[in-house]
Amino acid sequence: MIAIQHDPFDIGALYRRLSDGCHGTGAVVSFVGRVRDFNESPEVTALTLEHYPGMTERALENVVERARQRWQINDVIVVHRIGYMTPGDDIVAVLVSTVHRQAAFEACAFIMDFLKTSAPFWKKEHTSSGAYWVSERESDLASLKRWEQ
Amino acid sequence: MTLTHLNERGEASMVDVSDKQNSHREAVATGRIVMQPETLKLLADGDMPKGDVLATARIAGIQAAKRTHELIPLCHALMLSKVSVDFELDTVEHCVRVRAFCRLEGRTGVEMEALTAVSVACLTLYDMCKAVDRGMEIMEVRLDHKSGGRSGVWQRQEASSAADSHAVLDARASDGPAVTEETPIEIRFFAELRERLGVEKLSVLPGHLSSPTLMAVKEWIKSQVDAPQALDQARLLCAVNHDMVQGDVAVNPGDEVAFFPPVTGG
Question: Could you tell me what reaction this enzyme catalyses (chain B) (predicted)?
Fold first, then answer.
């Protein structure tokens, strides 16, 4: 399941959706990305997330498909929120279920790494002294290197 | 959308247009005059009592575009760089379709000029043909497309109907200066780039590009916006039909092209 939504998600409900009744699943790895109160500026009060409708869904489907080709995956859930969020809010959830844990850990990291560098989302951070668009991080681009085969 | 009368802190701010660059502005308006089939035939055959109807109506439309400011109270006088008025004889719906195209480099749009050109061309057609047909009706005078300026491109969205497909078929079949039915290329901007350009969407007819390529689309955008340098940043990403592309690629009618900064989701 891939979802882009304004509403908050319930990670417990996503976990149950992924794993309930799946007796061949031996491992579930989940990642949740959250809004921090510091980033490029020390006092982030909120952020707004923009996306490119149509292309974002397609980019996420591509990333999930590439992960499926690389690891034996039983199921994947990717939920990404858009709109206005404040520190402590969840932004993104990626859950991967597999037979054994190693594949689940790796596939979850793989999906997040490519989501961050190829899915068209943009963050704007709001602080008490104004708002700015978040810049890309070199470390995000560098972390793709480990997936080069 | 950004409000042009608010600054970054949300305070009211007066827009100073003296720094506003002249942009390349275009407008297309259309209309039609419906008549008896016999009237249309006389017109097509050049047998009207007053002579060459279409040539006269074309000149009337062009002259009218140039004098729009004299007719419409709050219109600026514009130095139009191009005005064209074309006709298409539609024997299915027995009407003459009129299309006017206006272009200028300036600080104000040319929609009124295009609409005036269509209106006066239609009135002239009426005048030239009224001796044989007083029941003619001037209909559907409207703006079809405009580009340039802060509000960017506006394109009439049309539910495809039988009448439209007739128009397309007829345009292909007619010998005269046919209306080219081109599908525009849609252009989208996101995040910081959208804010710097002050525009979210543009659309361009493929015929207005120097070549059917992404680079030509970019050059065209630069001619339309107030902050063309925003498109020169090194890390600008581009997608065609929702797929990321690198370098120059071909762009086809109906494609959706998007420009945006590096992505920062997750």
Answer: (8S)-3',8-cyclo-7,8-dihydroguanosine 5'-triphosphate = cyclic pyranopterin phosphate + diphosphate
